[in-house]
Amino acid sequence: MPTSPQGLGVIDTVHRSLEYLTDISTLKKSNIRISPSSRTDSGVHAHRTSAMVHMPLENNEALDETTEIKQKNLSGINELLSSATSEAIKVLDFHSVSSGFCARKHVIYRHYAYRLVVPKSFDYCYPNKPSLPLISEYPYSWILTPRFDVNSAAEACRKLEGVHNVASFFKHTLRERREGSAENTIRWLRHIGITMGSAYSLSSSNFDYYVVNFISRSYCREQIRRMMAVIVAYANGRIKLCDIDWLLSTPDPINFFAFNLIASPPNGLFLANVVYDPDSFLNPQPYAVHPWDHIAPDLININDEKNIVC
Which residues form the Pseudouridine synthase I TruA alpha/beta domain (predicted)? Predict the structure, then answer.
């Protein structure tokens, strides 16, 4: 699923599509509510994500009451989304969940992937020679230079793995600092690793393609993009491994700027997966209190990751 078309939010588009499709009264349509499992920065793409939807239903019939009813509803929503968004958004599956389930709190982990393109020669660097394959990559990757060393990048990834206070990679705004607002910045990065990738559309032997994968239950604001800036800086020889140690051992949002770094561009980042334990859909542990529980008991979970949904 690419970035939202025309600058409109994906959740907004799904919300309005559900209102358009349903036969329920105008009054009840206004009570359709959606809670996304993840939020992304502007410019970040999403391949797979999930959202919980509150649907006031006529006659208390679930939208997945039978296989036939479910398939009809799934086809209906996707036909409408395809027409409205030129196939930019698609719902792969949905099913009912019980009260106490939360699309955010019951996530096991979120998988983000960051795409990198490295020219094999400075002759092919953008914009020195903007070939068509390189132009096609620009909206979906961070285009680097041949200075990038993949082995050093892998070393930096291993350094960032594990349980850390990641405050040095947290975008803590000046207003938040003035107001004294604080956020828990302890995160368990279960995996950070770099692998060979492939072209997004037009392939060329003049470039190497890489993907940096991040797996964690949750992330701080702009954490991945700032970590990517550090990984690339180390792989380009701009900072040392001890500098990464210092950022981890001296957690403070202001420290990220000590090396004249800026967050990596958002266009290379993809939300690749949001994973749940399927048992949590009907037997959520722990039980999460949600405002919708006091409005109506019918909750539908729309999830576009097939291997999550039974």
Answer: 156-277
The answer, yes or no, to whether residue 2 has pLDDT greater than 50, is: no
At 225, the amino acid letter reads R
pLDDT in tens, 157-177: 999 999 999 999 999 776 666
Euclidean distance between CA atoms 188 and 160, whole angstroms? 10
The span from the CA of 24 to the CA of 224, in Å, is 42
Q: Which residues form the domain of 281?
A: 5-104+277-308
Q: Which amino acid is at 133?
A: P
| β-pair partners for 188 | 163
DSSP class per residue in 232-291: HHHHTTSS-HHHHHHHHHS--GGGGGGGT--PPPGGGEEEEEEEE-GGGGTS-SSPPP-G
- For the question of whether the overall pTM of this predicted structure is more than 0.85, the answer is yes
The β-bridge partners of 51 are 36, 302
Same domain (yes/no): 66, 165: no
Q: What average pLDDT does the chain have? A: 86
Q: What CATH number should be reported for the domain holding residue 216?
A: 3.30.70.660
- What distance in Å separates the CA atoms of residue 75 and residue 188, rounded to the nearest whole number? 39
> 76 and 135: one domain?
no
Contact 55, 63 (CB under 8 A): yes
